[in-house]
């Protein structure tokens, strides 16, 4: 079935965009956290630059990124995936870095007192405190990306959104109704699953 195939494509491109965004956002979040950056001109510059870029990229909606990438790489799911990935990197960098800024400074100071390097401090004092909320933020972001992927498809991002647009242009209203119900069912299912997983993570 064409609708189910497009739906699977939408879920997959949202997942791929999230997975690719996690790695970059994870690294950038350490440099975008005020409490981890040294109070030198270089540390301040790195912090300000990353924070500014993340804010700008996050303020540009995913649908606009989809239009940009559709022009650069052509219409299709690859353009939609890139659009969601860029927006996800910016959003997750902000969420991750704010979580780092709220960690308990005690373990960080204790690790530094032993003569540990910056990398060792991050690995042994910072990461253990942020891993659970990071997972919760990531799952929530995938949930958002599944919903965004539908809208992104309207401007050439592929997936179920593109199919919905095509059926609407052909005036096949029965198919349009079916696609809308499928989208609603997937979004509802994703919302329920992600909510349960996040609830379990908060109990850890």
Roughly how much helix do the residues carry, as a percent range? over 70%
What sequence of helices (H) and strands (E) makes up the elements?
HHHHHHHH
Number of strands: 0
End-to-end CA span: 41 Å
Going by helix content, strand content and strand pairing, the class is: mainly alpha
In short, what is this structure?
The protein has 204 residues and is mainly alpha-helical. The chain is built from eight helices and no strands.
Written overview of the protein:
The structure is a single chain. By secondary structure, this protein is mainly α. The protein is 86% helix and 0% strand. It has eight helices and no strands. It has helices spanning 2-31, 41-59, 62-73, 77-101, 105-113, 118-157, 159-169, 173-202. Helix 3 crosses helix 6 and helix 4 (77-101) runs antiparallel to helix 6 (118-157). The longest helix is centred in the last third of the chain and has 40 residues, at 118-157. The chain is elongated. The model has no long low-confidence stretch (mean pLDDT 85).
């Amino acid at each position: 079935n064409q609708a189910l195939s497009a739906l699977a494509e939408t879920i997959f491109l949202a997942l791929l965009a999230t997975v690719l965004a996690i790695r970059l956002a994870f690294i950038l979040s350490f440099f975008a956290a005020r409490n981890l950056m040294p109070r030198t001109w270089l540390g301040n510059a790195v912090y300000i630059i990353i924070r500014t870029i993340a804010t700008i990229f996050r303020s540009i909606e995913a649908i606009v990124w989809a239009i940009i990438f559709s022009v650069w790489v052509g219409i299709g799911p690859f353009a939609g995936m890139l659009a969601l990935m860029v927006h996800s990197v910016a959003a997750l960098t902000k969420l991750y870095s704010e979580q780092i800024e709220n960690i308990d400074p005690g373990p960080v100071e204790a690790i530094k007192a032993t003569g540990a390097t910056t990398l060792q401090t991050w690995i042994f004092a910072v990461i253990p405190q942020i891993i659970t909320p990071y997972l919760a933020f990531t799952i929530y972001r995938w949930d958002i990306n599944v919903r965004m992927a539908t809208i992104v498809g309207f401007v050439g991002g592929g997936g179920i959104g593109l199919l919905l647009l095509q059926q609407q242009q052909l005036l096949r209203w029965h198919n349009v109704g079916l696609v809308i119900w499928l989208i609603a069912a997937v979004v509802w299912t994703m919302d329920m699953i992600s909510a349960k997983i996040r609830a379990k993570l908060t109990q850890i």
